[in-house]
Design goal:
single chain; alpha+beta; Aminopeptidase; seven-stranded mixed beta sheet; globular
Length: 260
């Protein structure tokens, strides 16, 4: 019987694990970077996954060049207590774009993408360049085919639903637009919407006290996300979990009047 969980896949022989995890990679990504098929031996130095023995989570990385610093695709997946698939982190990086070191401090220590500590100079530069919190490079604008490929992976495991944990506010907005629904965190999102509305408490904190709190922040999703990352809520953006039924289309319009 084929495995239905990450923990089950991790118990398989190397070749079988590689075949199953390769289903996550959209063909558009391979074509864009002229990479060999994931079923060939040549891809092994580009497509990597790691996990602790006996664990129920896995980190997957696809590189366009063998020794490049950042993968073009990175995913951290785990099992829920009910054996469903939960995406903890999913990143698509454009390797040709400028890199901003928001993921580590000048001494090399990790910031966990700014969630544990912050490289403020790098973040301000990333903000000015047009990136959102947590981005070290521009994205690849391949989220739609990436979601389609991931849902085929989900179907192949016998599931019709999966979960995701948006690390930042803008991630949650993007997921809403692709048909995800809140399991946890809708009240927090509503609190953000109210706070950034006219005369809201968050709107009043857009006082130029930092590069992340400019007066024009309220009407732009990306800038809202930076202000929230900067602590404008008085608490971290956490405890937000979303789920999606396979094949469900977006039907939610969030933040009317906002743009990216």
């Amino acid at each position: 019987m084929s495995p239905s969980t990450i923990g089950g896949i991790n118990l398989l022989p190397e070749e079988q694990k590689r075949e199953i995890y390769s289903r996550i990679v959209p063909k558009e990504l391979l074509k864009r970077f002229n990479l060999p098929g994931l079923d060939t031996t040549r891809i092994q130095s580009f497509f990597k996954f790691k996990f602790a023995p006996g664990s129920s989570d896995v980190e997957i990385s696809l590189f366009h060049e063998q020794f490049f610093h950042d993968p073009i695709l990175y995913g951290h997946l785990t099992d829920t207590v009910n054996g469903q698939i939960h995406i903890l982190l999913y990143i698509l990086n454009d390797p040709d774009s400028q890199r901003f070191n928001v993921d580590h401090l000048p001494d090399g220590s990790s910031t966990r993408f700014g969630t544990s500590q912050r490289n403020l100079e790098a973040e301000a530069a990333a903000l000015s360049f047009g990136l959102a919190p947590g981005q070290v490079r521009r994205g690849l604008r391949l989220l739609a085919p990436a979601i389609a490929a991931f849902e085929q992976f989900i179907i192949s495991l016998g599931h019709d639903i999966y979960f995701v944990e948006p690390l930042y506010y803008h991630n949650a907005i993007i997921f809403e637009r692709y048909g995800f629904t809140y399991q946890l965190g809708r009240r927090l999102m509503e609190r953000v919407e109210t706070g950034f509305s006219e005369n809201g408490d968050l709107q009043k904190q857009l006082d130029n006290s930092s590069p992340f709190r400019k007066p024009d922040t309220a009407s732009r999703i990306r800038l809202r996300s930076w202000a929230i990352h900067d602590g404008i809520l008085g608490e971290p953006f956490t405890n937000v979990t979303m789920y999606k039924k396979v094949g469900k289309s977006a039907n939610i319009s969030t933040c009317p009047g906002c743009h990216w």
